Fold each of these.
Amino acid sequence: MKIDHTTVDHVAHLARLEFDGAAKDRILNDMNNMIAFVEKLNELDTANTEPLIYMTDETDHLREDEVKQEITQKDALLNAPKHDSDYFKVPRVVEKK
Amino acid sequence: MKIYLSLADIQRDLGSGELSCEALVKSYLERIAANEHLNAFREVFSESALAKASEVDQKRSAGKAGKLAGMVIALKDNICYKGHKVAVSSKILEGFISVFSSTVVERLLAEDAIIIGRTNCDEFAMGSSNENSAFGNVANPHDIKRVPGGSSGGSTAAVAANLCLAALGTDTGGSIRQPASFCGVAGLKPTYGRVSRWGIIAYASSFDQVGPITHTIEDMAAILEVISGMDEYDATLSSKPVPAYSKQLEVTGKKRIAYLEDCLNKDGLDPEIKQHVLGFVEKLRAEGHTVEPVSFPYLDYLVPTYYVLTTAEASSNLSRYDGVHYGYRSKNAYDLESTYKKSRSEGFGPEVQRRIMLGTFVLSAGYYDAYYSKGQKVRRLLRDKTQAILDNYDFILLPTTPGTAFEFGANSADPIKMYLEDIFTVQANLTGMPAISIPTGKHSNGLPFGIQLMGRRFEEGELLAMSKHLLAAR
């Protein structure tokens, strides 16, 4: 199949990315090439094949459910682009400026 | 100072008093400074490396040093080390400081390895040439006009240029083995579930594995036995005990080895590399091993399956980069949604955005079954067929790469052409098998290349023993 600009806009929104002008044309072209490339899989009959989801044969390893302090609040905020002493800061959410 | 190619040589000279860890680290720091043009390192951890060196020297004089004392090792820039920066060569994580260490780092330090720095790589480990780094190309030490391979290209270039004794890389589709081949060093992707992924910046979680890059198989075994095994922070790890790999590096008995005819007949495979693989076929036969051609009819489906599944996993893993909790935030953001969209669009490079977009597409409503689910079904076919071969053979012998290191820009115009660089390496990641590239080849163009050996799950010991044998027989 071939996708169009509408699909690119929809997928970009889902991925929280934005493409405008020439960048949008480029990503549309790249995605169409990649989709054509992966559609090769349709040549294989998988009607009776279950999806392979887990790559491990292990059953769950259970542990005691204990409270641990593994990272401090200070460390959690260390890499935030904007924060105060207690919180991550984001632009106003409820109304646009 | 002399150049060391093995931990045994370093430990011998440490033992005789001819060398100290501090002097060793200083000599590596000098070599790194003299080879800055390679751009192999993103950052050198001089201070903590020298501090660790003097700690190890003290432990040695007290007779209490760990088994990796003298191992000067570099980390790919996607492996967290507490108090040190890590950015997976992306602008979106520039300046990020790890607030905890990965399990592999904890284990290396506990055995007194000295971590010397973090190495350049393709952004988010997505690439086969290191050209996708947001911080410049890495030059191949064998020819600086050529790529080192990717995505762990800084790690393999650093080992090849003797800027460290060993390095850790990560391998999602060949990102350790392909650059190891291009740089003339050994690189191992362990079995999925052998080495903890805790503290590794995720790309595709059902594919990613950390592995060692070294000159010798002995050093690879020494590192692997330290970093492998259960970890309460990674539930995908196997509870199988970790063997003492370094104590069982001899091939015992006659082996059964398959080689994939489809790979050797693949268009685009360099004829010298093909001849080199066939040379090993003859050598092994002459030694009494059984070496037989086997058909693998799915060769052309490997890379497409890889791209459906890894991009899907990446789109999910990379959704955490939101411009809020850590990493880059756009100055142009005016509300929450634009904080996400502008931070991500300005912070991620083009290849990362391409893969997020394809991954989001294959997971989206209406396309999930046709692409993502289909990819998972094909993955089962690939796994079952590969397993069937390994039920009958101890190893699969194949090339690591279709050619030798290419020039910068040679594959840049067409992403799919670049993706096909991984045609021989993705099979191990899709199927969870361990695989190694060993530096046996020297092309008439002067460049090194490796051969690849894939083994049964959790039989790294067998793989390393045979690799040591092949490396000695080259």
Note: The longest strand of chain B covers residues 435-442.
Amino acid sequence: MIGYRTELRRSPLRWWFPLLVLLDLAAIFGRGRWWIGEWPMTSVQAQIPAFYLAPLLAAAAAWAAGRTGRNGLRDQLAAAARPRPQVEFAQLAAALTYGLLAYALGAAVAAGVSLPTAGPGFLWPGYLLLGAALMVSFAAAGHLAGRTFPGGFATPVACGLGGFIVIAWAAGPQQLGLFAINGAPFRTVSWPALAVRLALAGLLLAGAVGLRRPGGRSAGRRALAAVAFGAALVVVTVALTVTVPLQVDRAAPAQPLCTTGAPTICLWPEDRNQLLRAQAMADRMRQLPTALVTLPARPIAELGLGRGGSRDPEGFYVLEGDMWDPAQTMAGDIMEASRPQGCPDPAVSAFTPEFYRASGELMMWLTMRIYGGPMPATMHGGPPSVDLGAVADVVRGTDAEQLAWAGQRSEVIHRAYCG
Amino acid sequence: MRTAVDAPWWTGPLRHARAHDLAPVALLLAVVAGCEAAFGSLTLSFPLQHAAHSAGFPMRRELPIAYAALTAGSLHSRMADLETAAAAVLARYEGLQLAAMYAATVLLVGGVELSVSGPGTAVVLVRALLVWTGLALVSGRVFGPRLAWILPVATVFPLTYLGEDGQGRALWWDWTVRPPSDAAGWTLAAVTTAAGLTAFRLTPWRLRTLRGRLAAR
Amino acid sequence: MDPVVRVTGLTQGYGARTVIEGLDLDLGVGAFGLLGPNGAGKTTLLRTLATIAPPGAGSLEILGRRITSERSARRARREIGFLPQDFGHHPGFTVHDFVAYCAWLREVPARQVHRDSLRVIEQVGLADRRNERMKALSGGMLRRAGIASALVGSPRLVLLDEPTVGLDPAQRLEFRELIRSLAEDTAVVLSTHLVEDVSAVCREVAVMAAGRFVFRGTPAEMTALASPGTQGDTALERGYISVLGAGR
């Protein structure tokens, strides 16, 4: 414990700690505010800084571990009564303390800002542990590199810059799955996958503090330990690839949150901060001109609540806390329900560019009516050949003007289906 | 006239190169250039500031950091304690060394990118190299040459995470993405290069003179 | 004749901490001993005399030239041999490489570097090891190589910070002899904790405490200041302890 406290006091990270916290908070709050009020998104958001902190910790740990060799302390440590792994662990634990403390502070602040609007629940530990495992793994790898190559320049640079490259190249959710980017409520981190990532962190930690340079009286044992470490690393790496994807579907809740009145919009309980907006959208759907559109009879549900799970083609997704995407899904459902009935299947030639433009414009008009305004600046895309600005102008017009405009598009669609 | 025991003039500069580990530095430059040519197109995925997904871009965009760190890091010497008491010759050779490192890294980045990616990317990455080398020299002066990499590496976060607006357009200061002719990018390169060279020349005596002038105003 | 070193009203510090305050010093040819407890400001004074640390306040003259800028400091360094308390070395350098590199750093003319390096290596007793790598030397040998690096090129001002640390008794005797002969035509400043080294080679001695001189005089004058009952193995040690006690 004395050794750990000494290492804490002499760790180079003690001067950098405020910057680590600043980096953590910048990563959390620099990424928009849409995650506030929803626990899984807040949890992933609190985990995102690990992406940047992990390579920094690797560089710092490599630099600190190399000091033993650079400052000529090898003989002193070799002659120490205390087992070498304890000394190494104290050094690595000091670097980890600063990194993990900054990470925990960021998570606490993220939880604090989410708390007032998020309702029951709290940060999801799976995501937080995933970020912690990433940081421990990289710090331990950096420590091991620093012990092996104690230079004060090339090793920290290689660990820092190389760490960034490795994380960005191979650690993403679709590759080795060492971190998550998206915290949709219908997905959660898989516990077996998390266990493997924690095992990787534990293994690297054990290797960083336990492995010794070959040679000396117990050369055979040291070589055997190195081989065993290498073999275990291969096994864990294979397990990493087997346990991708990192996130799995959650079971739908027995009682999803649903709006009142028909048509009904249902949400995951974690999205309760969207319920008022969903209710307003349902109300606006009811105000659509029934002469032109038919409202869907079935409830409109968020992904994961319907039968298709997270791949339900009829489910909507609250992208980045905005209800634009759900509004588009609802508009699509209305278009489908409003399709002319009783006419023979039209020939392919009936679907002219004019038909597609009319469909697209009507679809966007419905979306804006349901959403309650034009497409927000943070959203992108839309049907091709549709002037979203012109449609927004229509939505701002009188009911009569809108009815006439939409009627013209309905007529084009009707002609394509029924001649 | 040289006597039999005289050493040729170049033994001094050669020892300077050895004290500064310039042979390993040259080897590392070659390794980085090889990585740039062979793996520069690998896609790196970074979280996005504005969205719940990641953005991918080629690894070559970050590699000039390694060249910059090597340039500033090569100014470290294992005999730094004795070199602090050196006459003018050391400053002269360190200046030459820095100029040679600038030239070598610009040629390597420009040459590799010209042959692999084309002139546009080559110009943008040479500009990024100038920005990062300037920052590395400042970092080397503040934290010591062995920690010259700190400021360049610290820019990875804002560049990869905060460098775009809500529409996915690169902000004016993202020197790794802005077009080759972008004035803001070149202004940044000029400012950071000037700051780096100033930091390189900023000895305790010059700092004292500067302080004296500032105090006199 | 101008003194080799003239310091007037020197004040030095690190941040808010003052290490040397209002110090005056004139040094001519001969050996000058600098004694004092840890943290007294000896190393800071030596670094200032070596023109590494510019004076915070006051002035510094070396060989009659006022040192006011980087340019004047670099010019003066050609005539200054400096051995820091701790110095690094390239492990791949031989002893000769190490000394010759230091000669090059001090702009010793190229035609003299090789010959003069061999001369000082021999003076410090490392002639038979001149082609050995620095990493293979013992602590005492490294120290002797350091002393050689400070003497190469025959500088007119030699600043030695703790030069005898790690030397065995025989080597210390040789070192004293070396400094005695050197001091005949060179200004030598010897910072040390070993008062017997000072008494053996220095014509003048100063004791520093808390950034100022609390004594300046000859070793004999310091010996005479020994108070009765003061601890110490030699008369000079007792004088040193007494001076320090009075200074506090």
Note: Chain B has ten helices and two strands.
